[in-house]
Structures are given as C-alpha cells and as structure tokens.
Amino acid sequence: MNTLNPKVTALTLGSVSGIIYIACVLLFAVAPRIGIALANTMVHGLDLTSIMRVSMAPFGTILVGLVEIALLGYLIGWLFAVMYNYFAKQK
User: Fold this and answer.
1) Roughly what angle, to the nearest 10 degrees, separates helices 6-30 and 32-42?
2) CA–CA distances in Å: residue 7 to residues 10, 14, 78
3) What is the pLDDT of residues 53-77, one digit of tens each?
4) How far is Cα of residue 50 from the mean position of the Cα atoms in its chain?
5) Distance of alpha carbon 57 from alpha carbon 55, whole angstroms
6) CA distances from 38 to 17, 41, 50, 81 (A)
C-alpha cells in the first residue's frame, strides 16, 4: 500500500498554489484585460470588469494574498494526504 507523506504533500501544494498566485499577479500586471477575461471564465461567465482595479494592487495586499493562498494550499495538501492514507488503509 502506498502512502503519502502529509508534510511533503502539504508543502508541495502550498508551493504550487503560491507559484500560480504569483503568475496570476504578473498576468494582471502585464495584461489586465486578458487577466479579467480569464477570471470571468473561471467564475462561470460572471462579469468581473465592474469590480476590476484600475491600478495594480498595493504590494502589501499582494503579499498577504500570497501568504493566504500558500497556507490554504498547505492545509488542503495536508488534509488530502491524511484522508488519502486513511482511505487507502480501508481498501
């Protein structure tokens, strides 16, 4: 039976989440209209243009968002590994 190391899985998903967040921030910095068009498709066509910022978010806001998304990814990765290991033993 294969098991997942919860810490490694958590660190991996937290890191990947942070990288994706940074890529999103960069996309909005370079091509905000493309970024908002992609965001609209991710929320099932909801029009987000009315709440779109006209300027880049402050660095502090971006940093807080990065920490939040990385921590959320870490928690989801840890919970995923724990649940995977539990269900793998039930087999």
Assistant:
1) 130
2) 5, 10, 6
3) 878 899 999 999 999 999 999 999 9
4) 23
5) 6
6) 17, 5, 15, 30
Q: How far apart are CA 35 and CA 32, in angstroms?
A: 5
* 11: enclosing H helix or E strand: helix 6-30
Question: Taking a C-beta distance cutoff of 8 angstroms, is the pair 23, 69 a contact?
Answer: no
Q: Where are the beta strands (DSSP E) in 1-91?
A: none
Domain residue ranges in the chain:
6-90
pTM, 2 dp: 0.87
- Cα–Cα distance for residue pair 85/35, rounded to 1 Å: 37
Considering Cα of 9, then 10, then 16, then 17, what sign does the dihedral take? positive
The answer to whether 78 and 11 have CB atoms below 8 angstroms apart is no
